[in-house]
TrEMBL record:
It comes from the Bacteria. Responsible for synthesis of pseudouridine from uracil. Its EC number is 5.4.99.-. NCBIfam families: rluA_subfam. It comes from Planifilum fulgidum. This is Pseudouridine synthase. Residues 71-222 form the Pseudouridine synthase RsuA/RluA-like domain.
């Protein structure tokens, strides 16, 4: 039976152990021995959507809903909102808002972001509604089969219209929040294409091959082109009150429906106003490739 659980159902060892402890696996209505051979006609039931409850109190935090089904949702995250609490007692996060939305539907669960967006980064974010779906989507993320396209406004004009930034990223020992390019850091790959530029600024389309903390911000700051509004990495602080980064597009394969899904969200007003003020007019060339 373990071959069925790990093969067709793609359950991790951790989830199998959890389901075993909570009696969430039934073979012909009984708790089975995992080494038992499954025969034709057997009925195997696995509780991959267990009833769960969050410790957080739901709050009406606004966000954009792009898609939702029984197992996952895709949201448009606003600026100035953490995805989840980063310290005890924090309120007003996206997680609080999603729980409030679920409460209105009569649904209870735990919010499981599949990837991350910084507090001031806007745009498309993928959320799993149960541990099983999170496991399946996390596998796609690690296999680099989830496509993530960002728009960024950086300082100055880049010397190359397209490129691949392959520079490892690690913690900055001089600042608790900052990251930096470091030889002993984790692998980090950003593919980019310049959509529009002036001497003052460039509109960049970037695709993440990896998902390190502050990856796009660190890579372009290291090249001498920090994001507009990114005071942490030396970007120009005028015209926008946050770093100019927007998660524009997300694509993945729905693990249960086996359908390719793509979602997009237009840049928010402050990003669009900055483009206007800097004279940037972007076209839509094909996304960068490896």
């Amino acid at each position: 039976m373990e071959e069925v659980l790990r093969g067709p159902l793609a359950l991790s060892n951790r989830m199998i152990n959890r389901l075993t402890r909570c009696r969430g696996i039934r073979l012909n209505g009984r708790m089975p021995w995992l080494g038992r051979r499954v025969k034709k006609g057997d009925r195997l039931r696995v509780a991959v959507r267990p009833l769960e409850r969050s410790d957080l109190v739901p709050e009406p935090v606004p966000f954009g809903l792009l898609y939702e089904d029984a197992d996952l949702m895709v949201v448009d995250k606003p600026a100035g909102v953490n995805v989840h609490p980063v310290h005890p007692g924090e309120t007003g996060t996206l997680t609080h808002g999603i729980l409030y939305h679920w409460q209105s539907q009569g649904f209870e669960g735990r919010v499981r972001p599949v990837h991350r967006l910084d507090r001031d980064t806007t745009g498309v974010l993928l959320i799993a509604k149960n541990a099983y779906m999170h496991q399946l989507l996390d596998r796609q993320l690690k296999n680099r089969s989830i496509g993530r396209i960002y728009l960024a406004i950086v300082q100055g004009r880049l010397t190359r219209e397209t490129g691949a930034i392959r520079l490892p990223i690690g913690r900055d020992p001089t600042h608790p929040l900052r990251r930096r390019v470091a030889e002993d850091g984790a692998e980090a790959i950003t593919l980019y294409r310049v959509l529009a530029s002036t001497e003052q600024a460039s509109l960049i389309e970037a695709r993440l091959e990896t998902g390190r903390t502050h990856q796009i911000r660190v890579h372009f700051a290291h090249l001498g082109h920090p994001l507009w509004g990114d005071r942490l990495y030396g970007g120009p602080g005028k015209l926008i009150g946050r770093h100019a980064l927007h998660a524009e597009r997300l694509s993945f394969t729905h693990p249960l429906k086996e359908e390719k899904m793509t979602f997009s969200a237009p840049p928010p007003q402050d990003f669009a106003r900055l483009m206007e003020a800097l004279g940037l007019r972007g076209n839509r060339p094909p996304a960068p490739t490896a």
